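Thread: quick sanity check before group meeting

JM: Hey all, I'm pulling together slides for Thursday and realized we never actually wrote out the predicted structure for the chain we discussed last week. Dropping the sequence here so it's in one place. If anyone has concerns about the input, flag it before I start.
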Amino acid sequence: MIILEASGVTVEYEGIAAVKNVSFCIEKGECLAIVGENGSGKSTLVKAILGLTEPSSGCVRLNGNIKKSDIGYFPQQKEVQKDFPATVDEVVISGCLASKGIFPFYSSKDKKVAAHNMELLDIAKMGKRSFRDLSGGEQQRVLLARALSSAKSMLVLDEPTSGLDPLISSEFFALLRKLNKEEGMTLIMVSHDIEAAKKNADKVLHLCKDSFFFGNINEYLESEMGKRFLN
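JM (edit): ok, ran it. Output follows.
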């Protein structure tokens, strides 16, 4: 079942197209990798998917009774975020706020969801530790658990392994693979790591300034756009 479909999406800033006439879809339980050169509009497209930016033309549709509040978001990480003065417990459960509206109070259900995600990502034992004192890999696990606490159907990740060393990146992608294949979470992942995309993605959306490719991973690897990007 197709749960998200983008049709002819264009996003402009001051009359200049950051994303131009892009169309793609993703089915429940799939992993979509969004790749492309810097400045090709990957993060802008993510904002359109999440409803944070309105397309200038075209549209993004959610199907199967999915709401935007059902989508978990793992944004690009900034240094200021890594120095956030809160405990691991507090950071993870704050992901539940996305569905709270005007009633920002945590229920017993929220606490169970947060605890489950911490167990799933093997961070339950560090619940009382300060987020700022964790290693880079530990912080990424905590932030992933936070995103999962708001993700009922889909998780969108924007450069989730940026700044991590190869070993920690590999471990993080293994976590994502587990969430996708074993937990059934639909993933949309922006990444510069094409090797990770080859191992984990079912489909690839490659953005260029004036064109795009969308198809399964094998089609992408055989395409002219894929060959140019890989070389």
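AS: nice. Residues 1-66+154-164+183-231 form a domain with the Rossmann fold fold (CATH 3.40.50.300). The mean pLDDT is 87.
JM: adding both to the slides.
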